[in-house]
Automatic annotation (TrEMBL), chain A:
The keyword Chloroplast does not apply. This is Gas vesicle structural protein. The keyword Nucleotide-binding does not apply. It comes from Streptomyces rhizosphaericus. Residues 1-28, 104-130 are annotated as: Disordered. Transmembrane segments: none annotated. It is found in: Gas vesicle. Belongs to the gas vesicle GvpA family.
From TrEMBL, chain B:
Keywords: Gas vesicle. Signal peptide: none annotated. The lineage of its organism: Bacteria, Bacillati, Actinomycetota, Actinomycetes, Kitasatosporales. It holds the Pfam family GvpL_GvpF. It is found in: Gas vesicle. It comes from Streptomyces rhizosphaericus. InterPro entries: GvpL/GvpF. Its main location: other. Residues 244-269 are annotated as: Disordered. Belongs to the gas vesicle GvpF/GvpL family. This is GvpL/GvpF family gas vesicle protein. It comes from the Bacteria.
Length: 130, 269
């Protein structure tokens, strides 16, 4: 198709050292290893608290994510800002943001509604008084 | 001096008959790797200094991508090395105990889970398959350059909207092909796991990663599976496929987060 020659075939672009895999052929990229050792494997609550680590790992992920978003912007790709079917880790963060925003909205609405109720009640009382 | 060390866990395996640890393996702190046995199981462990692997130190280190890379690779290297000695259950990075007795107690306590999991992954191997596309290969043909009569501002907005729609179309088309590829691969696997697309900077690629899955494949089908990846790459020329593995079963040993109970029930007995 119209694949132009300046598209970098996605992988094996870096010269980073790679681990040989068990039965030889394919070396493992850092991204492959990180997604497995940080996100997969059995989780056991050891003695040294892992909950804190989870939070830290999350910040690393977000930082990496931000780096990639900046890079996408540099390349003039901003579809992720609009694409609802965005299928990356970004979606989790965006969804989380959205959820939080909705929650804050609900809380504010709730408070606002109470206030309006109060106003109405007061208003009615005042009318009664007259 | 013992107080300054903690026990870092790499993997759980069936206790080896000869009781010897994987030879020549060193771990995250360059420490020799050894086995802690209990309940017919063996934890593959190493003693690491708390000053580097205690809670605070770890938290600081994890902010350092170079440290993380070195240590994550070491963790993986040990797990990978241990697979040469039998089926392993990889443990999440940074699983630490104060001492070996605590590890033995944990093995004892979770023996049934571990044995069931070891049975589930026995004779099976994890393979990773990623699919990349150049979005431009999936853009609609620019057959109708819209308008000419609109004001420059309107034309700009229309163009922007069209671009956005084109991107969505391209993404949809690429995803459809990726799903077809996944369906073919899944037919050879006993289980599949989806990972989010990798970070473009970290994984050094351009374009979109439209598939990043793991497949748990019976060992007898390994060759068939990798050959299928090659075939599919030819059948879908606009998609670049990459296979990685064989991996220790990282993606298939943890019970699903929200269905822990259900998973344990369905585990073959």
């Amino acid at each position: 198709m119209n694949q132009s020659s300046d598209w970098n075939p996605p992988v094996r672009r870096t010269g980073a050292a790679r681990e040989p895999a068990r039965r030889g052929a394919e070396p493992s990229s850092l991204a492959d290893i990180l997604e497995r050792v940080l996100d997969k494997g059995i989780v056991i609550a050891g003695d040294i608290q892992i909950n804190l680590l989870d939070i830290e790992l999350l910040t690393i992920k977000i930082r990496l994510l931000v780096a990639s978003v900046d890079r996408a912007k540099e390349m003039g790709i901003d579809w992720w800002e609009h694409d609802p079917s965005l299928s990356s880790g970004a979606r989790d963060v965006l969804e989380e943001n959205e959820r939080l925003r909705r929650r804050v909205g609900e809380l504010e609405d709730g408070r606002g509604a109470h206030r309006e109720d109060d106003h109405e009640t007061h208003g009615a009382e005042r009318e009664d008084e007259r | 001096m013992n107080g300054s060390l903690a026990t870092w866990l790499y993997a759980v395996t069936a206790a080896p008959e000869d009781g010897t640890p994987p030879r020549g393996l060193t771990g995250v702190a360059d420490e020799p790797v050894r086995l802690v046995e209990s309940a017919g199981l063996a934890a593959v462990v190493g003693s690491v200094p708390l000053e580097d692997f205690g809670e605070d130190a770890l938290r600081d280190h994890l902010e350092d991508l170079e440290w993380l890379e070195r240590t994550a690779r070491a963790h993986h290297r040990v797990i990978n090395g241990a697979t040469g000695h039998g089926q392993v259950i990889p443990l999440r990075f940074a699983t630490l105990y104060h001492d070996d007795d605590r590890v033995r107690a944990m093995l004892q306590e979770r023996r049934d889970d571990f044995t069931a999991t070891l049975r589930r992954v026995a004779g099976r191997t994890e393979w990773g398959v990623k699919a990349y596309v150049d979005p431009r290969s999936f853009l609609p043909d620019p057959d109708e350059p819209t308008g000419g009569e609109e004001s420059p501002g309107t034309a700009y907005l229309l163009r922007r909207r069209a671009q956005r729609q084109d991107q969505e179309t391209a993404h949809l088309r690429a995803t459809e092909q990726a799903e077809a590829i996944h369906a073919s691969l899944a037919a050879l696997a006993v289980a599949t796991a989806a990972h989010p697309p990798q970070d473009t900077a970290l994984a050094a690629y351009e374009g979109w990663m439209v598939l990043n899955n793991s497949y748990l494949v019976p060992d007898a089908l390994d060759e068939e599976f990798t050959a299928l990846v090659t075939d599919l790459g030819e059948r879908y020329p606009a998609i670049t496929l990459e296979v990685s593995g064989p991996w220790p079963p990282y993606s298939f040993t943890a019970p699903p987060k929200r269905a822990e109970e259900a998973q344990q029930e369905e585990t073959p007995s």
